[in-house]
Fold this sequence. Notes:
Radius of gyration: 18 Å
Number of strands: 17
Shape: globular
Distance between the termini: 49 Å
Order of helices and strands: HHHHEEEEHEEEHHEEEEEEEEEE
Largest sheet: 9 strands, antiparallel
Number of domains: 2
Structural class: alpha+beta
Helix content: 10-25%
Amino acid sequence: MNNRTILIYVFKIMPKGFISRIFGFLTRIRFPKFFLNYVIKKYCEGYKVNTEEINYPGKGFRTLDDFFTRKLKQGVHQVDSGRNSIVSPVDGRIDQFGKIDGNRIIQAKGIDYTVNALVPSDTAQRFIDGHFITLYLSPADYHRIHSPADGKITGYFAVPGKLFTVQEFLVNGIKGLFTKNERLISYIENRNTLFAVCKIGAMNVGRITLSYSGIVTNRFFRKREELFFKKDSQSDISRGDELGVFHLGSTIILLFQKDTVKFAEIETGQKVRMGQRIASFV
């Protein structure tokens, strides 16, 4: 048994949800300013956070969670203005992208999972033979999530689950990892086509919030809930508008319907910024 196998086993048996809730609780405590600033400084140094981009509050950050969910200075993100553009909803790294093969999505080389497992409802059928892109947010990245295109928010799907870390060794080692983790999916309709923004929870990232609903993930008592808004309750959203927040970094998976998008000249492993064009509607 090699070290990676042992590490995967350890992650399988540890109480990931409990650890994440404790971590989340600690990040919301108002520690003394000198201690909080020291921790943030060391975090920035360790993960090489670009501090020049941070929009610091007038009185500084009150908690670690305030820092993790920080906003950036105006002008840091330039949102592509092309009429048919689909932009990256986050600052992150492109891990996988391409065509959905019937019901199957690539997780990593030699590993895949199904659309039905990721979106466990009848809505999954709308993405059969469509397209997908997976974006990974590192601890150094900006953690707010934005809409990749104009449209109407038609609903959401909260799916309770595990909280495995989404580091590369586990993504390459556990089949269907993204379908095992807790996730919060936003449905957005654009010109009679539906796309989904799947926000994947992870260890120490159990808390995901939405900008258009009060739902919060990784609570002690939660249930699977898919909710579609009535027509008069659907909110308009523009490309680049805030959609939600990771209370640390994790993974986004975008799902598109068949024959609706064409990817830009992007490649696996590429870093992208929120607002950068990654595809276009066709």
